[in-house]
Amino acid sequence: MPGSTPLPPCSILLLAGGQGQRMGGRDKGLIPWRGEPLIQHLQRLTRPLTDDLIISCNRNAHEYARYADQLVQDGNSEFSGPLAGIRAALPVAHHDFLLVLPCDVPMIDGELLQDLRKTSSAHPNQPVMVREGEHWQPLLCIIPTRHAAALEAAWQAGERSPRRAMAALEPVALQCVTGDPRLANLNTPDLLTQVIV
Prior knowledge:
two-stranded antiparallel sheet, 7-stranded mixed sheet, 7 helices, alpha/beta
């Protein structure tokens, strides 16, 4: 972004490995919104920020491959949740920081991503996580890849919540106001049709 302070390079993970239960089992990242698959909106936004764009997907890999530099999968057919995708991506990320976004937040903008990266640069040893009002958004975060082993240990201990898995790493909040439209989570058919701004 012109005029911005140079920031450390980061890998970017787009999470598209869910079962899509609230979408009737459809592969959420490939559902059209404003004439394009949801994943394409995020890919267009993040592509200029990295040379290591990773997509976590558990089906339709041939479709997702066109949007990514590399794909990761959970390693099973159980749709184990977003921490499984993060766990798979951290060890293969090419850079020291992994920016994580779910595929169903197509209204995220470059300013928010830049703020995440600036905050991460100021706190390079801790995850940075969006907090909307008092509510943490653990899937909108940057994780130093040095924490891959800690998150793997949490996984092996049975943890499946990204928020709880990162709690011991003392995450830093990037504060957003409650109802910030950029954080709209379009994870049901109704929300996809209602959000038209």
